Amino acid sequence: MELIDERAKLLIKRVGIDQLVRGSDIGHSRWKNVLYKDVRMSTRELEVLKDLYPQYALWLISGEIQPEFGQTSPDYDEVNSKLSNRAEG
Prior knowledge:
Layout: H1 4-15, H2 17-22, H3 28-36, H4 43-52, H5 57-62, H6 74-88
């Protein structure tokens, strides 16, 4: 079972630390520590992820998605984007 911090780290890797620094008041070194070191992620970082990527809020907390309500995951969106590109081509 994937934990909240594991899902958050996956999202951080996908969007990139620079994107999170630009979208929040949390510095590069803190995001880097959260991603690469064994430090406890705070609710502050989770709030930033939720605010910047509201479509992933349900997935971040529960690991579940509900695409019919706009709640997806990075993996779901990646697969769907590839399917959409095939349909266009």
